Every structure is written in structure tokens, then in C-alpha cells.
Protein: N5-carboxyaminoimidazole ribonucleotide mutase
Organism: Novacetimonas hansenii
Amino acid sequence: MTNSPAPSSPRNSAVRVGLIMGSQSDWETMRHAAAVLEALDIAHEIRIVSAHRTPDRLADYARTARARGLSVIIAGAGGAAHLPGMCAAWTSLPVLGVPVESQALKGMDSLLSIVQMPGGVPVGTLAIGKAGAKNAGLLAASILSLGDGALATRLEDWRAEQTDSVAQEPVT
Ligand code: RP5
């Protein structure tokens, strides 16, 4: 992995999805969400925002998200993964939480930290790791497609391509 910044959408396109993560170390997982957003041509921004280490940055980010035009936030974190829940505390936008696989507990800590939100402040929780990140990108696309017919078509095409790629028989 290089130290160059993660690719974000061009500055002139309206950013619709905020992709945030608690640490640089989460990028290896969260890049799979970014890849889906790029494949579906969804303008997004990518930021490191930690609930623990940069709490003011998180508050600023989440509180201004709707006014800045974002529609969905994808938040990935590991361990004591407070980022999605605290983000959802600051904004009523849909927040999709991705539990990043941790070394100590293989992401069970991340999953339980994110999924067990008390009633009243929802976080849509995805699977642990790469699959969860990928599906967060797809779920963000589904949400946005409700008001965007062109994106709905791109999403349907993406799904059809996936279906076509499944072989009838396994290779021996
Ligand atoms: C969390 O702590 C991050 O989301 C990350 O998954 C985990 C470990 O962070 P680093 O110690 O690698 O920065 O806040």
C-alpha cells in the first residue's frame, strides 16, 4: 500500500457519499466500499475521522454533512468501534456501519460495538470486513438510486454483470 491519498471524486461533482474511517489502518478494508462507489460513478469523499482521537473532527463532519449535500455516510471502524454510532448521533442522514476486522477479536468487537445501537439512533450495520465494505457501497447506491434513475440503471447493470460472471459448474 502506498502513502498517496486515496482517490476521491473530482471537486466539481456534487459529493453524495461520505466515506469515513477511524484510522489509516482501516483503508485496506474500506477501499472496497470506495471501489464500488467508483464503479457506479457515485461522487464521494474519503476522510479519516476517529471518534476517539479526533472527536471534534467527527462532530464537525457529521453535523455539517447534510448541509454540505451528502446523502449517505459510510463509516468503518474496528475494535471499540464508536465511529458509526457517534456519527449517527450527530446527523439524521443514513449511516452505514462497517465493522473492520480487528486483530484481537477478529472483528466481533467491532461488530457488536456497531450493531447494538439503542433504539432511537439507527446505524445500518454490514458484515465484518471486505464483504461489509463492498455491501455498504452497494447499499449506498441502492439508497441513492431511489431518486436517481440513471444510477438505478447502473446498479441494475452491475448486478446483471455479477450474475453473468457466475459459472454454471466449478472448475476442478
Ligand atoms: C479504531 O481503532 C480504528 O477504526 C481502527 O480499526 C482501530 C485501530 O486503529 P490503529 O491503532 O490502527 O490506528 O479506532
Summary: The mean pLDDT is 95. The longest strand covers residues 72-78. The two ends are 33 Å apart (CA to CA). The chain has six helices and five strands.
